[in-house]
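PROTOCOL LOG
Step 1. Enter all chains and additional molecules of the complex.
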Amino acid sequence: MDYHIAVIKGDGIGPEIVDATIPVLDTVGKEYGHRFKYEYLLAGGAALDAGGDPLPKATVKKCKASNAVLLGAVGDPKWDSQPGGLRPEAAILGLREALGLFANLRPAMVYGELSFACPLKPEIIEGGLDLLIVRELTGGIYFGKRGTETIGEASGFGKLVDHLRGEKTLPPGRFAYDVEQYTEFEIKRIAHVAFDMAMKRGGHVTSVDKANVLDSSRLWRAVMEEVHVKYPEVKLDHMYVDNAAQQLIKNPKQFDVLATSNMFGDILSDEASQITGSIGMLPSASLGEGSFGLYEPIHGSAPKYAGSDIANPVATILSAAMLLRYSLNLGTEAAAVEKAVGDCLAAGYRTPDILTDGKIKVGTQECGRLVAGFVGK
Ligand code: IPM
Ligand code: MG
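Step 2. Run joint prediction.
Step 3. Record the structure below.
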């Protein structure tokens, strides 16, 4: 069967890690009788350079017309001081919003082979670590009203700013705000994703919030409880985000699925990635209502490593495996890719980020070819 995959290479190491992943998908196609048709699209800094818009309309349109999107990484400090504040990150946030990708799945697991790279004491991750962060992706403070005003001047946002200011008399000077907000609808749909995932895994959801302080978190907690009624097989508990940050280090094995807001999920997923030893290993899936999704490594564009063929492509390869599983319903093929990554590591091949004595150093493209070779075995 033919599948249409929109491919956004992006900036920094993005093009290299994507180039290393395509041979893996092609081998899956050959071995299992599928045809993957790639449409290469611009977004991020590359699109800013090409046409002044980090997220061209044509990119959104073509993504929507595809079965799934594979993305490398976007961003480079070179665009940090763009006139008008246009940053490459606007592309990724814009894509999430335009494509309705409200559910972000960020698994963190420690490969036995790489447990040495975990910065925690060995006994803390003994027996392996396998948790899944389900991060709400199109709501919360990322998409709430924001602005910068000067106290005393007319406000651009009228009522909202009056309300924010009205709480107390503010001293003169600049005033900036970002509103954390959640609707019941948004919490409900991400709750369902978290519980559905837990049903397929360890049957345990930890909902992370700051309900001791925030109204939006109190609603989050209440709606989680309400949706939980439909999942009696799943255990639900709640944890404040500051405690969750501690517990991830102290006893990460207590977690199965962590369900949380956009902002808390952003922070906790970086923390969780470090437990696994290398951020270069972790994939992610961003899903909407149907099977369509966007798949990207959780790491950034690492501009200082760009063009040197040293970046680890495994996070992108594993993202492609998630693409096969969630958007194309090719679970067997996805498992074959995941196994090939394990085989490649077991055979001793390592990119520099996970290299140790006695192992075989390989570059980005070589790593991709090796994993592809193991898929074909
Ligand atoms: C991530 C990134 C993005 C986010 C940035 C690049 C906008 O940190 O995907 O975790 O904050 O969501
Ligand atoms: Mg992040």
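Step 4. Note key features.
The chain is about 40% helix and 20% strand.
The radius of gyration is 21 Å.
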